[in-house]
Amino acid sequence: MRPHLYLPLLPLTLLAFPTHASSGPLDLTATGAGYFALVVFVIAYLVVMAEERLHLRKSKPVLVGAAIIWAVIGWIYVQEGMPEVTEAAYEHTLLEFSELMLFLLVAMTYINALEERRLFDTLRAWMVEKGFSYRGLFWLSGTLAFFISPVADNLTTALLMCAVVMKVAEGDNRFINLCCINIVIAANAGGAFSPFGDITTLMVWQAGKVDFAEFFALFLPSLANFLVPAAIMSFAVENRHPAPQTEQVELKRGARRIGLLFLLSIATAVSVHTFLHLPPVLGMMAGLGYLQFFGYYLRMTLPRSLARKRHAAELAGDTERLRYLGGVVPFDVFSRVARSEWDTLLFFYGVIMCVGGLGFMGYLAMMSEVLYTQWDPTSANIALGILSAIVDNIPVMFAVLTMDPQMSHGHWLLITLTAGVGGSLLSIGSAAGVALMGQARGIYTFFGHLKWLPAILAGYIASVAVHLWLNAGLF
């Protein structure tokens, strides 16, 4: 160790740690080190929120912030002669992240594989060719977003539906903006009643707070969250037809079978968690093995498949088809792994480690005392859902899980719902909203979304009300 490297932290540490030895975690909430860690986290998160303006990846500030916070904690505990306490706390938080990260990595790999096999392109082409009216497209894109996001996650679903709308209604910015708002709301709402629909629901499921089947108690509250604002906004949609378009898309070999393997992977993860009481990530990693074996099969049988298709194209004199077949490359699982959202995964690490560090300092216990003791859990969970529109729902949910307040099953479902759909209140409140602001830059905007805040808030209130009424027996 080189003590001179830690000299910049010395003024803080003089205020930070008590002068007597202790065997447990130290309360650092009212110390210079604690205040310094809070400032670091706030600055890091402000930089994250300015991602679009700064063109700086959101993972960078939280990675550095997490390192600084834990370095401060480590220095204090070294001075107190308790380095093993900090090491155990860090490793515990890292283990929680690792399980979620590997689970998400497999899910992202499957989604990327389905995208590479052109499954989503085929869906988009079908919607374009059907010639729906604007109002029909508004409802169809929202409904598909609601029902696809529980499996494909809300971010991927929102990007897919936005691509469809922008192609069909090209040039009609007002309609595209309305559809994007509807898609964000629908994707977030659909993700709230499935462990695979959002990172926060996955966190709740892996923590054992809600069983797999119990998430479906949130289906009707989530549906209310989507339908109420959609019904209000639909009155602003003109009932006319866009210009007809045609798009030919061919599914690549194995697309449907990869979709079935994805469902099998999910079933394996659920079975492992339900019957063997092991972390769901074990089942998902087995699912990655399924995909690797199938990728091997696709590579080994590719020459025979191409020869058969070339022969058919030559007989038909289809030169364009022959040209396409000449560009076919073998399926590579690891190229799909490489295309995962690594910035999101690293951001996830940084946020969890920042919040974990602040919790180890004692701030989450303080917050829990205010929210769940001085307030009632219902009010606290509703307020946290609204907060998730400003602060990403990942740190909000991780903070609640770390605080682990004594709540009824109904209240755990309530925070799952509010953290999942609360991000729809603002365009920056969810990954889906932020992604669509980039995809439909200048068309779907913060203020365009804000204009419909009363309608979205009505949906938020409706979803909470439906849950409190429908699942009253769980409280």
**Alpha carbon gap, first and last residue:** 52 Å
Strand content: under 5%
Radius of gyration: 24 Å
**What series of H and E elements makes up the topology?**
HHHHHHHHHHHHHHHHHHHHHHH
Biggest sheet features: none
Helix content: over 70%
Low-confidence stretches: 1-22
- Number of DSSP helical runs: 23
Give a structural overview.
The protein is an all-alpha fold. The protein has a domain of 222 residues. It has 23 helices and no strands. Helix 7 packs parallel to helix 9, helix 7 runs antiparallel to helix 11 and helix 11 packs antiparallel against helix 23. The longest helix is centred in the middle third of the chain and has 36 residues. It is globular and about 80 Å long. The chain starts with 9 loop residues before the first helix and ends in a 5-residue tail after the last helix. The N terminus is likely disordered.
What is the structure about, briefly put?
This protein has helices at residues 10-16, 32-49, 51-54, 59-79, 83-116, 119-129, 134-152, 154-168, 173-191, 199-206, 219-234, 255-275, 281-316, 319-326, 333-338, 342-361, 363-374, 377-387, 393-403, 409-421, 431-439, 446-450, 453-470. By secondary structure, it is mainly α.
